[in-house]
Amino acid sequence: MTTAVTALHGIAPHSRDRTAQALRLWPVVAITVAAVLVMSLPNLADPFIRFDDYPALLAQPELFWGKTLHEGRWINYLWHLRGVVTPAWLNFAVYQVLWAVLAAALAVAAMGREGRAWYVAVLALFILVAPPATLISLWFNTLIPGLGIVALYAVLGCRLSIGTHRALLPVFVVLSFWAYTTYPLILLAVCLVRTERHSLRDLIGLCVLFVVSFAAAILLTYTLNWQFHGVFGVPLDAWRQATPAADLSGMIANLPILAETLSFLMVKISFMFTPVAYFHVAMMIGATLVLIRHAPREALYLHAGLWLGMALMVLQVLKLGVVAPSRSFLFVWIFYAVIVVRAAALLGRTPGFVDRMARNLTLLIVLSYMVQTFSQYTIYRPWQAETRAMAQVVETTDMPVLVYGDVMSLSSAKAVQLLSDKALVFRIEQITGRGIVLCDTDPNRCAAADQATGTAMKVEVTTTGGQTRLSYPQGG
């Protein structure tokens, strides 16, 4: 416990002017906000929403209540109770701005010791284009409060002394854990990158402080579940088809699930282009070697945070027996970005061919991933357009609307990996305020509605010319 106390109080004041650093933050925020809005343009006006994010958009806490038990999302549940429904485009814009602020604050905290504007801006953009961030942004309605908590902690890292900032870590770990399980790992990254006087004792103290805080978050979550659900723990929902391990042999049996998790991660961060995955591995190795040579203690700090986070993720996968989604590994990209750009900055102290190559490769990743992110957001537009067209048809009638056929087989649904046909129900409710009935999943209700009125509007899923679309009755 002594090391944890050292992490809080044993850090002497540093000469860097925190006010000056805070002033440097806002120009970087302006850059990242402009960049994220440009990258998000295809999805800004009418953002795509994952089906289980709709309760947050529509402020329907009763539909989210189960996630407090099965996922410990207590902060998110409180957000559902707000009683104010704001448009999806506004929520998405707010979420993306919060992400831009977080990326900027991380970059300023990590590069403050150098103070070179080019490297600060590039690191901020490098973090901004993280593929896991793009994936998780589709749950923007739910995650606004959690991302706001993490962004606030990063901004405070540019203003407060290190000791005061670390003293707040336990509180922020608990709050962010109640929003998304791996958000606390981003807080750890903030603490590690802004540390300036590196020592093994300080590193151990910080890691102990974080682990204790993380354990406290789990314990408090279990306590809340016991208080409100009568269950001391966070039991996984049945749809996850988990294979929990009771002992070491069970964890060994779950190794293929771990391999699948890591394989999915490499696919997602490379946008399904395998050579890019190998390129990132090579960049990580090369940058690490540069850090070991020029700043070995800094390399130790960054890799300690990275592998502590990976250890927690590996333990979770092996213990629970479920594939961890790639979006939960956002912290990995953050550490990767810091390692690469910090290495480039160190090489930049001696201008030459190696320095130019490092800067060019870093800039190549940033620019190419900005284009890829923009492209990723365009794939949701066909689904949005098709559902808007259906909503227009629904608004022309007062009859019940019955949808026949497999919604998941729609070409636009496959393109966006829809996850659930409930997305169509929520989407039509979002636009029109009306409900529809999916006859494939609720045949009894569909038949009852049809028999009761005899004049229901029947929408069908049909395939023509290789494209599966929604079709409407003549005159509908």
TrEMBL record:
Keyword Membrane annotated: yes
Record's signal peptide: none
Transmembrane region(s): 25-45, 88-111, 117-136, 168-191, 203-224, 269-292, 299-318, 330-348, 360-380
Entry keyword set: Membrane, Transmembrane, Transmembrane helix
Name the UniProt record assigns to this protein: Uncharacterized protein
Organism (species): Pseudosulfitobacter pseudonitzschiae
Lineage: Bacteria, Pseudomonadati, Pseudomonadota, Alphaproteobacteria, Rhodobacterales
